[in-house]
Structure formats: C-alpha cells, structure tokens
Design a protein that fits this description.
This protein has a single domain (2-169), classed as Rossmann fold, CATH 3.40.50. It is 55% helix and 13% strand. It is built from 8 helices and 5 strands; from the N terminus they run βαβαααβαβααβα. The chain has helices spanning 13-24, 31-39, 43-50, 52-68, 87-94, 105-112, 127-145, 159-174, and strands at 2-6, 28-30, 73-76, 97-102, 150-153. It has a 5-stranded parallel β-sheet, sandwiched between helices. Helix 1 (13-24) crosses helix 8 (159-174), helix 2 crosses helix 4 (52-68) and helix 3 (43-50) crosses helix 4 (52-68). The chain is globular. 28% of the residues are buried. ATP binds at residues 10-15, 119.
C-alpha cells in the first residue's frame, strides 16, 4: 500500500503523513527530505546551483523510483511535485490512495505567515499579498491537485479529523 499526500505548502502533508504512517505501521517519506538526503544538499541549494528544471527532473526520477519500488509507505509530496512532467499520471498509476489536503487560500495564508522565512517561495512576499499569491498558485495547480482520488477539505478539521477522513477512505476503498 502506497498512500500519497499532496497539496499546497502548509497543508500538513508531512505532519499528517508521519502520524498516518505510524498508525498504519508504514515508513514515512517526505519527498523533499528524501531528495535532500540522496543529493546531500538542500532543495534551495539545488535550485540555486542547477535551476528549477534540473530539480524537477531529479524530483521526477526519485518519485518514479519510489513509486516503482515494492515498498509500501506514506509519501508526502512537495507542493509542486504533481504539477510537473507526467508526475500526476505516474502517482495515480501507482496508488489508489492519493489524497489532496485542500485548504482555502485564506487558511493557508494564516498557516504560512509565521513560517515564511523557512519557505523560499513566499519568504519575500508581504503578509498583505500572501493570500493573493497563494490563490493564484492554487488556481494554477488545481488542475493537478483535483485529480487525486480523495479530496480532504481541511479548513475546519483538526489533525485527528483529517486523519479520520483519510482512514475512512482507505478502509472504504480496500473493502
């Protein structure tokens, strides 16, 4: 069983993924962290040294290798991962458990304001413009995100409620 979590930055993919993996006794993989450990460099360094196109090719190759492996896991994707190359088709082909953790741009802006300095993509965006930036980005990415098998509308859910929604869909799909 490969369980894939996707969504915009700040949607809780890693937080939920770790708990879900523990509950299901599966390894947890954060794709960005996985790439950093394999490359022995931070993502921002790879971007700076080689550019986004190089990074997206690297990301695709690691994603493909993980998905084609025999190993079961919970995988948290980077926010942009589904949107490049044929990554979304690859993801859907290798797992019936693909979850989009959907938040409104307003809620994401609230969640991300305090961690902007750790997020290079939004580090230089004023708080007043953050929600509009996120709204535009999500609009561009929704075509990919909405292909997930399950959409968890998370604005009003606690972590436990989001996990319950995921678990309920996994159980329902496996029966």
């Amino acid at each position: 069983m490969k369980i894939i979590l996707l969504g915009y930055m700040g949607s809780g993919k890693s937080t939920l993924g770790k708990i879900l993996a523990e509950r299901r006794n599966l390894p947890f993989i954060d794709l960005d962290s996985y790439i950093e450990s394999k490359e022995n460099k931070e993502i921002k360094e790879i971007f700076k040294e080689k550019g986004e196109i190089y990074f997206r090719k690297l990301e695709h190759d690691y994603l493909k290798n993980l998905l084609q492996s025999e190993t079961d896991f919970v995988l948290a994707l980077g926010g942009g991962t589904p949107c490049f190359g044929n990554n979304m088709n690859l993801i859907l082909e290798h797992s019936p458990y693909v979850f989009y953790l959907r938040y409104s741009p307003k809620k994401l802006a609230e969640r991300l304001k305090c961690e902007k300095r750790n997020r290079p993509l939004i580090a230089d965006i004023d708080d007043e413009n953050l929600e509009d930036f996120i709204r535009k980005h999500i609009f561009e990415r929704n075509m990919f995100y909405n292909q997930a098998h399950f959409i968890i509308a998370s604005d009003n859910f606690s972590i436990d409620e989001s996990l319950a929604q995921i678990e309920m869909n996994i159980i329902g799909k496996s029966q």
